[in-house]
Prior knowledge:
The chain is of the alpha/beta class. It is about 50% helix and about 15% strand. The chain folds into two domains: about 5-155, no CATH class; about 175-290 and about 305-370, no CATH class.
Amino acid sequence: MACSSNCYTYCCGGKSSSYYGYLFNNQAVFLIGLFFPRVKIVNTSSTFHGQIYIPDINWVLMLLCLAVTMGFRDTKHIGNASGLAIITVMLVTTFLMSLVIIICWGRSILFAICFIFFFGTIEALYFSAAVIKFLEGAWVPVALSFLFMFIMCVWHYGTIKKYEFDVQNKVSIKWLLDLGPSLGIVRVRGIGLIHTDLVSGIPAIFSHFVTNIPAFHQVLVFLCIKSVPIPHVKLEERFMVGRIGPRDFRIYRCIVRYGYHDVHMDDLEFEKELVCSIAAFIKSSYSAEHNRLFEGPVKEGEKMEVVSARFQLEDHDGVPGPSTSLEMQPKVASGAKKVRFALPESPGGTCGEREELQDLLEAREAGMAFVLGHSYMKAKAGSTMVKKVAINVYDFLRRNSRGPSYVISIPHASTLEVGMVYLV
């Protein structure tokens, strides 16, 4: 995942205590996404990076507290459960602190061992006293720990298997080149946005779709939306655009990066920014310097670049907005919500550039469709019972957990879901 320049400056600066706090907190956010079903994560501060609040976890804790209180109805059993949980947290913190001493502070291993021996011995005495009360209420935090560990292990296992399936079944660029500019199907008017988690290669959902329905849009965009561990991503650095295959194919890849405090744009604003970014990439790709830089055979992932879509927008009264260096200027028809793009009156660039820009704008005028994958996970025939249970539990959790945030802003009238079964 590519970070913006201010993220690079922050991460590669002096390694102060705030740096390590930033690093560990963002690693925690990463681990939550890898080992736990998708939940809402609220970053509470723009100054101190990585401070998070998870409302779903608070609700779960409230329900568990009520269940334990109503179940035991005895402060002695509740105290035993609380005591074992607290002393276990202290033991784990002591062992993790030894890693901080070695890795972050750069002290010797002998110093870390002495730290563990001194504090760990004291905490081990308290732990042994709490374990004696296991059958008198202390079993509750142990049971909950095993439950959450089971969920985390299953989610991690399913996530890895799903990613491996996507990587192993993605379509090669050679397959795309063999189809030719028409892709062997009917190219209808409009722009097709194919959402994918892959930043390279062609997802299997595309081949699955064209195999069953041999028709697709004249302009294809493989869209990948990523969240980066910084508060804001500048608009000039948000869109990363590349080309898949030759220019005649009209297939592009776009990686959109959002910071955790960035507000996702609505569908009209996003479409406008996306089209302008692709147009800016087309203009830069036709420059003589860019052509010399990318001479040679077409290879997947070679031509990705960060583009800045600056444009001039006219309001309903025809008053122009801020000036721009991009010649493609969107215009808003009076009394209409739809943004209409038009080429500049003064000709510029090569004929190929003008033709590609014209095709892009005609496709935008025809409309934009959002293609989402709706996948199901199933274990292969002959799999062990443990694997079948893990895959079934993972698929249940994935289908009933929170979806990606960008799905909320996608208009349902322009959404097309493609079902696909993952056999892992």
